[in-house]
Amino acid sequence: MTLEFNFTYLANNEIFEYLLKFYAKNYHFEFKKEEENYTLKISGEEEELKDFCDILSKMSYSVFLKDFEVKAAQDFTPKKSEEREYQTYALLTHLNANAYDKNGFLCENEWGVFCESELKIGKNFERITKENFNFFLEKSLKLLKNHQSIYLKNHSGIYAISLFAKDFKGDFLMPCKLEDLRSIFVCNDQILKLLASVEKPLISLKINAAFRQKHALNFNEFKVKLADDLFLYALGLKFEDTHFLSFKKLESFNEEFELLNYEERLVVLRGFDFVAKRARELIFSKEDKNMAKLSYLASLEGENALILELSEDYEDILLLNRELNLLNLKLPKHSKELYEEIRKDEIGSRLLTNFQKEFALLDEALETQNNFFSLFGILGRILDLKPTLKEAAFALLALADSAKIPRGVKIDYRLKENKEFDYTRTLRSAMSFMLAGVEKNNIAYGAVESLGYFLRDTYDDLREKKQVDKALISGSLFSHKSLLKITLKHLKNSKLSDVPLYI
Questions:
Q1: Does the pLDDT value for residue 283 go beyond 90?
Q2: Which of 157, 164, 214, 288 lies at a CB distance of 3.0 to 4.6 Å from 252, suitable for a disulfide?
Q3: What is the pLDDT of residues 199-239, one digit of tens each?
Q4: What DSSP element (H or E) covers 284?
């Protein structure tokens, strides 16, 4: 009897392949991988296959696993697979967590790694081993209960860990047990599943209204992460009255693997832990890491993809055919330059004359990058949202994300005859709505929504010309939910990059 398992796994790494082969190693099996599609055939007696299905059901869930199906298949003759080395991962998985749960047994994970963390009790950090595990556990428990911090080091950084005193002074919280989350945060079963996955992502969750009101909090969300190694997992289980530990990152070696909680879609914000090792090393060896990331994405997607790389920190790129940037965006470096451009035609000059009767004109240097985030910053300054360009951009995006209106005002996004993006038309249309008395949140949402339509129109034009057949959404500007939503909604055959939006 033969069963065929088909999986769709979105990330370009070896983790899922390794786990499948690890659990299939005692069976007759055949494994194939074609891009995101993984096929595993297993043959054996009915009881053997039932045992394998039971094992597979307990295997650690991955955030990158999208689809899964199983069906009966024709028998096959197993081929001897080539021996190869896989990258090892110091992950907390069902294997080592379950062994500890049952009888306190200390064992390695599927990669043969026990624990990568080091603990600082005296002056120096010391690697946590099976031999010192329980000593360090009891020592850490005693220090924490006496309201002292412990210090932990792993491949991501060095952390000060303390009892959570409801002050939110750390960078993120770790619930001692999964069920403790709902005492503070709003989270459904899907969120719990993501948090408990083999990747153990950092996710910003909404704080429930009762807790927020009781403690008079002026913010709505805070970041949460489950224990990602056996020591932290065991430490959490030792507490009875304490529900959370607070983590403060004192020194950063690598960014945390962070996801955006957005409508059950996988949105990877930060952290390159689960990008293929060779690609990760290549990207971070380059001076221009963002361009290196873009080249990597282009190599994966091929010539028929339009890559939309919109960033808070780098120049925006609409990449066609792996090398052609369709976006020619040049923003001013001073407000005087902006107003001079607007005055170049009669309509713009008349608008500016009327505008300065009602609103103060800017007179300041503009620290712009050639990207839409900086354009939002200029508009945010004109709207007087915040005193600096960067703060104003974030304020405008926050207004757009929180807007409850079905549609915003239509803001102009267009190219000049020479194909350069005409930023003055964008700002002029927003200024016209300001003169008409339109509210700031409507203009903010309209600016973001209209950018989404501009991207759609650009993409549709290329599709009609048969130059592209798919779009890849990348870059940190898409971490803002209003832009992400409108872009995913209106760009047909588009997908989000599984490579982090931030770099």
A1: yes
A2: 157
A3: 999 999 999 999 999 999 999 999 999 999 999 999 999 99
A4: helix 277-285
160 CB neighbour count, 10 Å cutoff: 16
Q: Work out the number of other CB atoms within 10 angstroms of the CB of residue 433.
A: 19
Cβ atoms of 100 and 115 within 8 Å: the answer is no
Note the pLDDT of residue 214.
92
Query: What are the DSSP E strand ranges found in 225-312?
Result: 244-252, 258-262, 265-270, 305-309
pLDDT of residue 295: 93
Cβ atoms of 90 and 109 closer than 8 Å: yes
CA pair distance 230, 111, nearest whole angstrom: 14
Find residue 62's DSSP bridge partners: none
Q: What is the model's pLDDT at position 323?
A: 85
Mean pLDDT of the chain: 94
The average pLDDT across 39-46 equals: 92
Calpha distance 296→300 (Å, rounded): 6
Strand ranges inside 142-287, DSSP E: 150-154, 157-163, 172-175, 185-186, 202-207, 221-224, 244-252, 258-262, 265-270
Task: Quote the CA–CA distance of 392 and 373 in Å, as a whole number.
Answer: 10
> DSSP labels for 313-327?
SS--EEEETTTEE--
Do residues 332 and 366 touch, judged by C-beta distance below 8 A?
Answer: yes
Report yes or no: 491 and 456 within 8 Å, Cβ to Cβ.
yes
Q: Please tell me the pTM assigned to this model.
A: 0.93
CB 372 within 8 A of CB 315: no
Q: Which tokens in the block code for residue 255?
A: 């960014």
In SS3 terms, 415-476 reads as ECCCCCECHHHHHHHHHHHHHCCCCHHHHHHHHHHHHHHHHHHHHHHHHHCCCCCEEEEECH
Unique residue bearing structure tokens 């300065």: 356
Q: Could you report the per-residue pLDDT of 81-131, keeping only the tens digit for each?
A: 677 889 999 999 999 999 999 989 999 999 999 999 999 988 899 999 999
b/e 168-192 (16+ beta carbons within 10 angstroms → b): bebbbbbbbeeebbeebbebeeebe
Place of tokens 């060095």: 158
Q: What percent of the chain has pLDDT over 90?
A: 88
What are the structure tokens assigned to 471, written together? 């779009």
Three-state secondary-structure class, residue 496: strand
